[in-house]
Design a protein that fits this description.
mainly alpha, 64% helix, 85 residues, Cytochrome Bc1 Complex, Chain D, domain 2, globular
């Protein structure tokens, strides 16, 4: 049973890491950049702000829609917990 848990955990971490790499292309390795010179710096946002903004982007007509629309609410919360203040 432990082996199954660790395999599941490893897959979960790998999927999260691969998604974050896509974000880092515009937002910087530590989310320190303004994407396309226009966005807010993600690492400066509160967790609630990240959740609110990603949920908005899921339905917006912005460039972020193609990325945010792939995220579940659970994934959005995970991102906010890792990168929000």
């Amino acid at each position: 049973m432990k082996k199954i848990f660790f395999v599941f955990l490893a897959l979960h971490v790998a999927l999260f890491a691969s998604f974050i790499k896509v974000c880092q292309n515009c937002h910087g390795k530590t989310f320190e950049k303004r994407a396309l010179g226009r966005s807010r710096v993600v690492k400066n946002l509160k967790k609630d702000e990240i959740i609110q903004r990603l949920k908005y982007f899921k339905t917006s007509n912005s460039i972020m829609k193609s990325y945010a629309s792939r995220l579940s609410d659970k994934q959005i919360k995970q991102i906010a917990n890792v990168f929000g203040r």
